[in-house]
Amino acid sequence: MEKKVIINEERCKSCGLCVSVCPKHVLRISDRINSKGYHPAELFDNEGCISCGFCYIICPDMAIQEVRRPEPVKK
Amino acid sequence: MKLIYKKPDAITERDTTYCPGCPHGIAHRLVAELLEEMDLVKKTVIVWPVGCSVFGYYFIATDAVEAAHGRACAMATGIKRVHPESFVMTYQGDGDLASIGIAETVHAAARGERISVVYINNGNYGMTGGQMAPTTLIGQVTTTSPYGRKPELNGFPMHVPEMLAALDGPAYIARAALDSPQHIIQAKKFLKKAFTAQVKNLGFSLVELVSACPTNWKMTPVEAMERIRKEVLPVFPIGEFKVAKGVE
Ligand SMILES: Cc1ncc(C[n+]2csc(CCOP(=O)(O)OP(=O)(O)O)c2C)c(N)n1
Ligand code: SF4
Ligand code: SF4
Ligand code: SF4
Ligand SMILES: [Mg+2]
């Protein structure tokens, strides 16, 4: 499935606020390192994400650029 | 996939100069989202302060000026009077607005200037290294209150919205907080009413946003948000202190 949360890793400052508010605990700080020297946040469980947008709402650096919700499956 | 949230276009591609986890960035995003949603971006002039948000004009793409320390409400007054068709707002810290600039703030409110003020209470002078501000809590250690703020020496924390709500000029006065998604959503609703007060020409409007300064508080960003809930909000409660008819 397409990613529900689009993170611009270059903007991330590794503050951890998104990780702290995610109700489904599907975000974490990655081992990668961006050009500013920070470890960017990553969505490690796309299936588990409920597209609530809390990560977007609290991110002070607009690094969480988009939150998307899958369209309901038509029967 | 349906798009639920998207970074506003009025937020520039430039990285902010704020420390990791500093809520100044959250306040910027709320302002940018509302200016877009209310179709105000093109007619907005933001008067930026002296303080950590001194470079705000690099981060929100509107017309802007930079005021001398504390004088944002005086500058905004002049701009709004000459360009009444513009949406004119200030963005100020607690040192800027409540310390050096308190006279400009109170008189702009008393005159009922048609400007909107976004006021960031982070309990200290962030930019200069964490000195005591008018909003510093009793007992709080800062570089200029090394043994904690003492009322007999340093006076008491200043509640700007409560003070201004006693005046006749303001149309909308409120306090919100930036510590949690729930409070941030509420903060956006309050800011929308403040902006509406100006759009409808009802009077002066101000929203205090209880914020954090993780760097000078010497806390992680997550700890700083917890401190807002545990220590700051009991002294600076969330609420609407003046709501003129028509703001809703
Ligand atoms: C006339 C003048 N006096 C003092 C200063 C030094 N100064 C720069 S920022 C600042 C305080 C800023 O604190 P605040 O408004 O709370 O903003 P914050 O950095 O906390 O967001 C001071 C005193 C200055 N730049 N100009
Ligand atoms: S949208 Fe909600 S569930 Fe998904 S990662 Fe963000 S905070 Fe977690
Ligand atoms: S809140 Fe934003 S800046 Fe902070 S870790 Fe998450 S994505 Fe990075
Ligand atoms: S010093 Fe404090 S207010 Fe200034 S950018 Fe850093 S955390 Fe934010
Ligand atoms: Mg301050």
Describe what this molecule looks like in 3D:
The complex is a heterodimer of chains A (75) and B (248). Chain A is α+β, with helices and mostly antiparallel strands and 75 residues long. Chain A has one domain (5-67): Alpha-Beta Plaits, CATH 3.30.70.20. Chain A is built from two helices and four strands; from the N terminus they run βαββαβ. A two-stranded antiparallel ribbon of chain A has the order 1-4. The mean pLDDT of chain A is 97. With 248 residues, chain B is α/β, with parallel strands linked by helices. Chain B has one domain: Rossmann fold. Chain B is built from nine helices and ten strands. Chain B has helices at 24-37, 72-82, 94-100, 102-110, 151-154, 160-164, 181-199, 214-217, 221-232, and strands spanning 2-6, 44-48, 63-66, 87-93, 116-121, 124-125, 131-132, 170-177, 204-210, 239-243. In chain B, strand 8, helix 7 and strand 9 form a beta-alpha-beta unit. The chains are: A alpha+beta (75), B alpha/beta (248). At the A-B interface, helix 1, helix 2 and strand 4 of A face strand 1, helix 1, helix 7 and helix 9 of B.
